[in-house]
Specification:
This protein has about 140 residues and is α+β, with helices and mostly antiparallel strands. It has one domain: HIT-like (HIT family, subunit A, 2-Layer Sandwich). It is built from 3 helices and 5 strands. A 5-stranded antiparallel β-sheet has the order 1-2-3-5-4, with helices on one face. A hairpin with a 3-residue loop joins strand 1 and strand 2. The longest helix is centred in the middle third of the chain and has 22 residues. It is globular.
């Protein structure tokens, strides 16, 4: 896997404002936050995208992500938040190491803005069966 800024942070070569750490996960404040409290959650396992991450590392993130979100909300006082995770350059991933953003949405409107161009599901039964068949 290519070297990333997160690899350097994990090795201690670049400092971070650490929020949480265990054997599998590191969480720290984003240095270019969208809003106050914007926190990044990364696995210590190297994987560029979520589909490449092991079940163990995925489970470790899943166990801590809700607790981190509660802490961010409690400290910032934000009434809402987004959890954002991008996979691949065309999906706006900029650092090719799996990472989750916890982005508080504050009462002043600061936070993530999203446009969601909804479509129409044409053949849900066939598509669901195809996806289920790949599991």
């Amino acid at each position: 896997m290519p070297e990333t800024i997160f690899s350097k942070i994990l090795r201690g070569e670049i400092p971070c404002h650490k929020v949480y750490e265990d054997d599998h996960v590191l969480a720290f404040l984003d240095i270019n936050p969208i809003s106050r409290g914007h926190t990044l959650v990364i696995p210590k396992e190297s994987a560029a995208t979520l589909d490449q991450l092991s079940d163990e590392a995925s489970a470790a993130i899943g166990r801590v992500l809700p607790r981190l979100a509660r802490a961010v909300l409690a400290v910032t006082g934000a009434p809402a938040y987004n959890v954002l995770q991008n996979n691949g350059a065309s999906a706006h991933q900029a650092v090719f190491h799996v990472h989750f953003h916890i982005i508080p949405k504050h009462a002043d409107g600061s936070g993530l803005g999203i446009g969601w161009p909804s479509g129409k599901l044409d053949d849900g039964s066939a598509l669901a069966a195809q996806i289920a068949g790949k599991l």
